[in-house]
Specification:
- 71% of the residues lie in helices and 1% in strands.
- It has a two-stranded antiparallel ribbon with strand order 1-2.
- The chain is globular, with a radius of gyration of 23 Å.
- The two termini are 33 Å apart.
- The C terminus is likely disordered.
């Protein structure tokens, strides 16, 4: 029996229902990840332009997720706390999925990617906090593993749809120049309907604890562990600290932009030799300066005593992250850099390296794209199975070592894509990548949920997304530069970069302090001054 006031355990069927919406979310995300490069190239984009066109997706997540996390923490009404965001985001994302494959020109497709990703982020972010809200500590690994299971199943469905349309239903996967194939169009239509249906299932079959109930559970948890929360203004970052940090980041952004301008000009430095400095690097410079600008705004608001606006709460929480969250941020950075490299360059890499068909207008390229999408189903089917396995394995090995092992398996998978030339054998590397993917979308969240305050679950899940988005933005700005200048523009070597990134993530994982309590959170033992 649980002590009075503690959060009760949920039945497996309840955990199933609360996670089922992720099936639809992942169908939407994987249709986007598996087909957007194909759509862009069909509408005239060159391979070296793909990364910058993809920048809309991570930029949207960077802005949307912390805001939605903060808002959902403050929301309570007839339809609950997180569920209103599930439903609104799903409606908008479904509409975007219907419009995207009908884009007449490249700029429309790029704009629809932005809208689609914003809507999917509105739906997804509260789902992460939803598990932390509803489950006690001992069930959170199961909860996030169940989400990972539905992520895998959803990705299987999304990856298989274009292939099924071609090989089972006889629709054409080739279209006239500048037009999207029927297989892709119908895959997006079916995916949009599935997204809305799956999210609606979760919305109407689950309940949420009220803010008062959650506060009671948190108080009972702290009392049982003999801790009391310290609320001290000394923990706040000062206006002077914000101002100094802001100036440093702005100067760094300006200096980097000046270097890019110089390197792209006629009087470029001789040491650059034949290295081509892409204009996409201006985006990276702008991001550095923008982070500095945010800190300058925060310094003004802090100096004026305006500490309770949504903006200041988000920024303050960013700089007051628990130590465990900071350590996980490094792991997430390298993990998601690798995944984004695969999403951007997977289709052109397989088409050129394994099918010898780099031209999107050819049958060979479209066959390669269908095969890569089907391999995505294999990869994600393995991820779904692995997620269920984590529930059992986590009882026998700590989550830190398990995650590090999984990432190393993923690194081996990416390396295998270079070593294996026969496209029929590419399912072998998908084993390692699928296991790593299941781990990335479950274990870090299970660790994180135990180290943040219950009343800030949404905002910290949103802030945590920054360390998913930043590597994606970096990938979108520097991968094209690296592939062009280090590997002669051959996209298969983006998989090599991904393998190295996974190894670095595995090493960083070994330095993470796992546990239900923050390693350096503002907590005091009960009775201490």
């Amino acid at each position: 029996m649980m002590p009075a006031g503690h959060k009760p355990a949920l039945k497996p069927a309840q955990i199933w229902n609360m996670s089922f919406g992720f099936l639809g979310i992942q169908i939407g995300f994987d249709l986007q990840n598996g087909n957007v490069s194909r759509i862009f190239q069909t509408l005239g984009a060159e391979v070296d332009e793909l990364a910058i066109l993809w920048i809309a997706a991570p930029m949207t997540g960077l802005i949307v997720q912390p805001i939605i996390g903060h808002l959902s923490d403050k929301t309570w009404g007839r339809f609950g706390r997180r569920r209103p965001y599930f439903l609104v985001g799903a409606l908008l994302a479904s509409l975007a999925l219907f419009v995207m494959p009908n884009s007449p020109v490249l700029w429309v497709a790029a704009g629809m990617l932005w809208i689609m990703d914003a809507s999917l982020n509105v739906t997804m972010e509260p789902f992460r906090a939803f598990v932390g809200d509803n489950l006690p500590d001992r069930q959170r690994t199961m909860g996030y593993a169940m989400q990972s299971f539905f992520i895998g199943v959803g990705a299987v469905v999304a990856g298989a749809l274009p292939w099924v349309m071609t090989n089972w239903l006889g629709l054409s996967n080739v279209a006239p120049a500048g037009e999207i194939p029927q297989t892709v169009q119908w895959a997006f239509y079916i995916g949009g309907a599935a997204l809305l249906a799956a999210v609606a299932w979760t919305v109407f079959t689950t309940r949420e604890y009220s803010p008062d109930e959650l506060a009671g559970f948190e108080a009972a948890r702290r009392n049982a562990l003999g801790i009391a929360r310290k609320t001290s203004a000394a923990a706040l970052r000062s206006a002077a600290q914000f101002r100094k940090g802001g100036m440093v980041w702005i100067i760094a952004g300006v200096v980097f932009a000046a270097f890019v301008a110089l390197a792209r000009g006629e009087a470029r430095p001789a040491f650059l030799g034949a290295i081509e400095v892409a204009q996409e690097l201006y985006v990276l410079a702008a991001l550095l300066a923008a982070f500095g600008g945010i800190q300058l705004v925060a310094s003004v608001l802090r100096a004026e005593g305006r500490n309770h606006s949504g903006f200041m709460e988000v920024v303050s929480d960013l700089f007051a992250m628990p130590k465990t969250m900071q350590q996980l941020a490094v792991v997430q950075f390298f993990s998601w850099f690798a995944m984004f490299a695969m999403w951007i360059y997977g289709t052109p890499a397989v088409a050129e390296y394994h099918f010898s068909a780099p031209d999107p207008a050819t049958q060979g390229y479209q066959d390669a794209a269908d095969w890569w999408a089907l391999l995505g189903s294999v990869r994600n089917g393995l991820a779904a199975a692995a997620a269920l396995g984590f529930i059992l394995i986590a009882a026998r090995i700590d989550r830190i070592r398990l995650h590090a092992i999984n990432l190393m398996l993923g690194a081996a998978g990416f390396a295998g894509m270079l070593l294996i030339r026969d496209p029929a054998l590419l399912w072998v590397p998908m084993i390692g990548i699928g296991i790593a993917w299941a781990s990335i979308v479950s274990l870090p969240y299970a660790i994180l949920a135990g180290c943040v305050p219950a009343e800030k679950m949404g905002i910290y899940m949103g802030v945590f997304n920054i360390f998913i988005v930043v590597p994606q933005l970096l990938a979108a700005t520097v991968l094209g530069f690296l592939v062009t200048n280090l590997f002669g523009g051959e996209p298969i070597y983006a998989m090599v970069i991904a393998a190295v990134s996974f190894v670095l993530a595995a090493i960083a994982t070994l330095f993470v302090a796992d546990g239900d309590l923050p390693a350096d959170a503002p907590l005091l033992r009960a009775g201490e001054a």
